[in-house]
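Q: I'm writing up a methods section and want to include an example of the input and output format. Could you take the sequence below and give the corresponding predicted structure tokens, formatted cleanly so I can copy it straight into the document?
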Amino acid sequence: SGAGFGGFSDIFEEMFGDFMGQQQGGRQRSSQGAQRGADISIDLQITLEEAFKGKEASVKASTWQSCQGCSGSGAEKGTKAETCDACRGTGRIRAQQGFFMVERACPTCQGAGQTIKNPCTACSGSGRTRKEKSLNVAIPAGIEDGTRIRLTGEGEAGVRGGPPGDLYAFMSIKSHRFFQRDSANLQCRVPVPLHIVALGGTIEVPTIDGKRIKVSIPAGTQTGTQFRLKGKGMTILRSAN
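A: Here is the clean output for your methods example:
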């Protein structure tokens, strides 16, 4: 039975080793020491009028950007990163523990698959430097509080030439002194003179677009009566109207 178990372990190791070899081969083809940059987020506050009309806001964000001195490679100008001798460029190493082969990130290159013998002095080999950049965020009309806008590729630069992350702008709408928003509807309280309440008449009510509209008040109208002004609420997001 001992020989049978040993034969099983040999077969298992061979199958498992082939699988790991395939996995490593895939990594070796795709790993060049590059890592995707992190996503970043900013908070952007606008007024209710701006949410109604939409706008293009200019914002500033401090992010990691590709180093100009080494073009993001991390290596000093005139040099380049070299394949890691410890992992042969795979970024992973294997070690046998009992019947199993355990794989982990290469400690020599920290899983990058490459080593830099002459790191760029401007970025210390990271391929990135921290700078502040200005961005324009297109805010669509009708946007709601808490909406997230994504700017693809405007996050932090990737490590050693990796793709950049994304930037997310989280929208916050200031409280309005007159209007209260309920989804696409707007509500407001309007004082009405006593003689108009008793005899009837018209009053002017401001709208979110900066205009005023006349509203007819029937005689005997009670306090708290609601009047609906069709089409005078918020813009519907992505609507042409």
